[in-house]
Amino acid sequence: MSDKTKKESNKLKRYFDLEVLTSDTQPIIDSKIRKISKTMKAPGFRPGKVPIEIVKQNHGIDVESEAINEVINKKYSEAVKSQNYKPAGPPNIEPLSDGNNSVQSSEKLVFRAEIEVLPEIKIPDLKGLVVKKSVSEISKEDVEKTIERLQKQKMIYSEVEKGAKMQDRVSIDFLGKLDGKTFKGGQAQDVKYILGSGQMIPEFDELVVGMKKGENKIDAITFPSDYPAKELSGKVVEFDIKVKNVEEGRLPDIDENFAKEFGIEDGSLDKLEKEVEKNLNREVESRCSSRTNNSALEALLQASAFDIPEVMVKIESDRLAERTKATMKQQGMFADETNLPSDIFVERAKRRVKLGLLVNKVVEMNKLSPNEEQVSQIVKEMSGVYEDPEAFKKWFLQDPQRRTQAEAIALERNVASWVMSSAVIEVEKIDAAELLSDAAKGGEVSE
């Protein structure tokens, strides 16, 4: 093996050659052929009695390829260990070519391995970092607005004969055609939704507005140019719509029955307000903590400079693209037909990879891995919005993947706390309505 380290713009790349000799592969080939011969069946021969030459004729190429791969993997592992490399991802291994001069022979095959190694990470001086600590208070107005939203959730609908208007609930069948042809996701029956709720695009809602129960309409709309499904963006689509029902909504009275709908057994409106206020305080506290932690991680990120492995960025970009498509599919969008190249996620992926490397380094240096109590606290906070918190916690922790999510949040909290222990803290007061709006939109920790 010869080290072929190159000086390129990518300082993390390493190259080295792997030599595969016939003397390396032949024992493996012979062993595999003997194993196959014990069970191979062939016309005119009893099982296990097929001549070795016939076994080689049928399986020789595949067995040789497997043997070469085994030797390559073994020598790759040895090379990485001997050079003390820390690969950032899987290697790229190709047969070595030297122009017109072949470096391959019947006795020796040479492969060039290309890898990226993990970067050297230097943690910045925390005393120069500024972290914004978010604080907020719940007002009586916030409680009242929340109860109004709860009131809308319990909207009472009744059937009407007049034409549909925005905020009415309709039940429809529809069939869409693009250039005279149906398309996947363009047809549905018994779709019940509220006009103007955002479930359908505004242009489609406008077609339904004014239609009465039992009415049919064929009309066309132009999809927005920024519509996620590129095959539909900016295109004219004809829809055949049938309205099967129109219902008008009425807000329920805020009374004892209303309070009971939200778990207040005695129907006390005062208790309902106190319960809402408690839940809002918990949510605001959680969002403030999240924003503060994100500020600490962002300050650490911006103060750190090191090379980011391209292979890790590519893997993360692909993961983000697949996750986005899965989310689109869950929301009823045309994810299968949508061209969503991973390239559009590169900048976001770079940030996530850099932060991940940085956090792992800090955790390693300062022994900040989360303990069981911290993970349990994360899950406890998640369970607060469920009717049966204990059942949720048990369900959540049963799945290793879900548990990993909680561990990642706890780990980032530990790093954020470590940063804030030495950084300059600036208190930032945030309007509670803004925090609650962010909560409704969702979002990732440290995104």
What can you see in these coordinates?
The chain has 447 residues and is α+β, with helices and mostly antiparallel strands. Helices cover 45% and strands 19% of the residues. The protein is built from 12 helices and 10 strands. Strands 5, 6, 7, 8 and 9 form a 5-stranded antiparallel β-sheet that branches. A hairpin with a 2-residue loop joins strand 6 and strand 7. Helix 1 packs across helix 2, helix 6 (269-302) packs across helix 12 and helix 9 packs across helix 10. It is extended. The protein starts with 12 loop residues before the first strand and ends in a 6-residue tail after the last helix.
Which tags fit this structure?
12 helices; five-stranded antiparallel β-sheet; alpha+beta; extended; disordered C terminus; three-stranded antiparallel β-sheet; 447 residues; disordered N terminus
